[in-house]
Design a protein that fits this description.
This protein has 15 helices and eleven strands. The chain is an alpha/beta fold and about 475 residues long. The structure holds glutamine (GLN). Glutamine binds next to loops.
């Protein structure tokens, strides 16, 4: 076993047994980043000096008998999380010069657990995208095929984990941005229940949908790190005050008796054959493991894309109004007057996809159209949540594909926003309803990974992780590494 293919649990045990130090571990992964990142473009910033200092501190606390399970484990943070003293760009020219003055709660909690972050990962600009092509820092490449996208918006985290440049990375998911890239690069990724993980210090896109989570090869890896991120935070008014289970201990929950619903609406039209076949094979594995598999229907779910593309832009148009060229971030050269300063700073600082969202959002919130679009979308959103509520009276978990097909070529959809938006058709519903959901690798379509999605009722992360873990004990898709990165 080499260090970069070790699981989080193995790394934690190796550190505890003194087989290697946190500094050695950080160096190993920093070397891999140095070697492979030029081709992948997965990192916006590599924080080697800070990481080595944090690793030395982790070693010192272990020597002093103060180590926790995760002390010295290296990860990366998506560049949407504020990191004190380190550039936090959100993938945008607007924040290319922004040094955050404080840490996001996710970042400070991970640091308190002794986790060492090695850098900040590339992402779609302001987390708007499904392919990582909207980043100011250029596209990220998929380690399985460098001519293809890694998915988005957490594409940098996805590629970094898939290429084993880091053992795990944080992500955020507003409409699928953890699950879809996890699927496209063959790793696991969990978006927890809305409110489970604090949004404080996580740059806002659509606040009623945004949720932080974790991306790593296996569900077990995710369990280790989710426990360190989750929990009540008085600084986030939508954070839920509810105890965090011991996700690792609960991984062993037996699968027998689990009721799984296969989502009828997402197994037919629009689903590519190679993906559908792998998902059906995964469902067979669950049946063999003793789960009861039935069909479920959420008839309003196909409306989730149009609903999301009203709600998310509406919230983003409001959230992004803070970037005005005055307080922080990009400011245009030689403004003529205040209006010119606002207009040119925003026109030059934001890329085309962000501008499209702001315009759509402003439009649907405007006096004449609010009732027709925004209010209507909110009503449909409740109907979608009702559909899920009904389904979860019959089943414990819902299974469906994560994305309609495998990773597509860079450039293939970038000029056609609607086609791009449809890549999230299977993931957006969970965000609209605030439900936890995850993607796990379930095989390949040709040489490209395919993801299986699990969706559960609110706060069922533990059940979901143990169900994913049961599948991963039977299969080895999650330990496959692209040949060039083995
Ligand atoms: N791809 C979706 C979008 O572009 C979701 C993004 C996300 O989850 N951050 O909005």
């Amino acid at each position: 076993m080499s260090l970069h293919t070790a699981s989080i649990g193995e790394l934690a045990r190796g550190l505890a047994a003194g087989q290697y130090s946190a500094v050695e571990l950080a160096r190993h992964f920093l070397d891999r980043i140095g070697r492979f990142n030029p081709a992948l473009n997965a990192f916006v910033t590599v924080t080697a000096d800070e990481a080595l200092a944090a690793a030395a501190a982790a070693d010192a606390s272990r020597a002093a008998g103060r180590a926790g399970v995760l002390t010295g484990v290296p990860i990366a943070h998506k560049d949407i999380f504020c990191t004190q003293g380190v550039k936090t760009s959100c993938g945008s020219r607007m924040l290319d010069n922004f040094i955050a003055p404080y840490d996001a709660t996710v970042v400070s909690r991970m640091a308190a657990a002794g986790v060492v972050y090695l850098g900040k990962t590339n992402m779609d600009e302001f987390a708007m995208g499904s392919s990582n092509e909207t980043s100011w820092y250029g596209p990220v490449r998929n380690p399985w095929d460098p001519s293809r996208v890694p998915g988005g918006s957490s594409g940098g985290s996805a590629a970094a984990v898939a290429g084993r440049l880091v053992p795990a990375a944080t992500g955020t998911d507003t409409g699928g941005s953890i699950r879809q890239p996890a699927a496209l690069v063959g790793i696991s990724g969990i978006k927890p229940t809305y409110g489970r993980v604090s949004r404080y210090g996580m740059i806002a896109f659509a606040s009623s949908l945004d949720q932080a989570g974790i991306m790593a090869p296996s569900a077990e890896d995710c369990a280790y790190l989710l426990g360190a991120m989750a929990g009540f935070d008085p600084r986030d008014s939508t954070s839920v005050d509810r105890p965090v289970p011991d996700y690792v201990a609960e991984l062993a929950t037996p699968l027998a008796g689990l009721r799984i619903g296969v989502l009828r609406e997402f197994m037919g039209e629009g689903l590519e054959a190679g993906t559908g076949d792998r998902v059906r094979e995964a469902i067979d594995v669950y049946r063999r493991l003793g789960a009861t598999v039935v069909d479920v229907s959420c008839p309003k779910l196909p409306l989730s894309v149009p609903t999301y593309y009203v709600v998310a832009p509406a919230e983003c148009s409001s959230n992004l109004s803070r970037f005005d060229g005055v307080r922080f971030g990009y400011r245009c050269e030689n403004p003529r007057d205040l209006l010119d300063l606002y207009q040119r700073s925003r026109a030059e600082g934001f890329g085309p996809e962000v501008q499209r969202r702001i315009m759509t959002g402003t439009y649907v919130l405007s006096a004449g159209y609010y009732d027709a679009y925004y209010l209507q979308a909110q009503k449909v959103r409740s109907l979608i949540a009702d559909d899920f509520r009904r389904a979860f009276t019959e089943v414990d978990l819902i299974l469906c594909p994560t994305a309609p097909g495998p990773a597509f070529p860079i450039g293939a959809k970038v000029d056609d926003p609607v086609t791009m938006y449809l890549n999230d058709i299977y993931t957006i519903g969970a965000n609209l309803a605030g439900l936890p959901a995850m993607s796990i690798p379930c095989g390949f379509d040709g040489a490209l990974p395919v993801g299986l999605q699990l969706i559960g009722p609110h706060f069922s992360e533990s059940r979901m992780l143990s169900a994913a873990h049961a599948y991963q004990r039977e299969t080895d898709w999650h330990v496959r590494v692209p040949a060039a990165y083995a």
